[in-house]
Amino acid sequence: AKAKHDESNQESRSKDDQQLIGTMNESREVEESSSYDSEEDNWVNYFITNRGHEFFCEVDADYIEDQFNLVGLQNQIVYYDWALDLITDMDCEEQLSDGHRELVESDANVLYGFIHARYILTNRGLVKMREKYLACDFGVCPRLSCEGQPVLPVGTNDTRNKDVVKHYCPKCEQIYKPPGSRHAKIDGAFFGTTFAHLFFLVYPEMKPEKSKLHYIPRVFGFKLHESSHAKALASKQEHERLTKKVQSKRAQNRR
């Protein structure tokens, strides 16, 4: 009877332990889930995960909150204070109309772009962009001889509304229009003219050798000389000149 009583107590304790472990696991899952949701709900994460924003990295919150890093941006953004509050997930005390909120959201996109252009020139920003480069998040060079070389985003102008973002290939050292329409409206100033080239000064070991492969045009198996097209054009123009001269003489003889 005593043995049965001990076995009953052990089974009861085992069930209690299992329930306790299950409760702890459920609690842990809830905490992890709520933490994950809170990270997903912040504005910066929402922005960089939007379709077409794959080139952007996540700017650290402490960088955005440091006013020194934002010097000069106040004059370029109409709703600067509201836009900054939106980016940093600060609750707006003033109730905004739908139209006003759309303007603030638009300015927040622009403000984040300007901040991003500065951030990717810092050590922390370069590290994050390096991770995206290694993951081939920016795409590859469309040139066949570059053999799928990863590219970096680059701007052709540091001023907004001058040009959209381009691809820079470090192998052929040329820039290209990103394929598709997803990045057709992303301003090149949000990446700037310096980043792509500073990147390979900071990480020189990642700069590939310049491609030595070049397509060679041939006609019936023979390589064309560099002057071939110039000679063909000159010959055609001379033929047209002589033809016009003959036609002019014939017209005069008919008269």
From TrEMBL:
Which cellular component appears as one GO term in the record? Answer: cytoplasm
- Which keywords label this protein? Kinase, Transferase
Basic residues compositional bias: what residue ranges? Answer: 244-255
Task: Give a Pfam family name.
Answer: CK_II_beta
InterPro entries associated with the record: Casein_kin_II_reg-sub_N (IPR016149), Casein_kinase_II_beta-like (IPR035991), Casein_kinase_II_reg-sub (IPR000704)
Note down the stretches annotated as region Disordered.
1-36, 233-255
Source domain of life: Eukaryota
Molecular function terms from GO: kinase activity; protein kinase regulator activity
Ranges of Basic and acidic residues composition bias in the record: 1-18
Q: Which Gene3D superfamilies match?
A: 2.20.25.20, protein kinase ck2 holoenzyme, chain C, domain 1
- Quaternary form? Tetramer of two alpha and two beta subunits.
Regarding protein family, the annotation reads: Belongs to the casein kinase 2 subunit beta family.
Name of the protein described by the UniProt record: Casein kinase II subunit beta
Say which species the protein is native to.
Answer: Hirondellea gigas
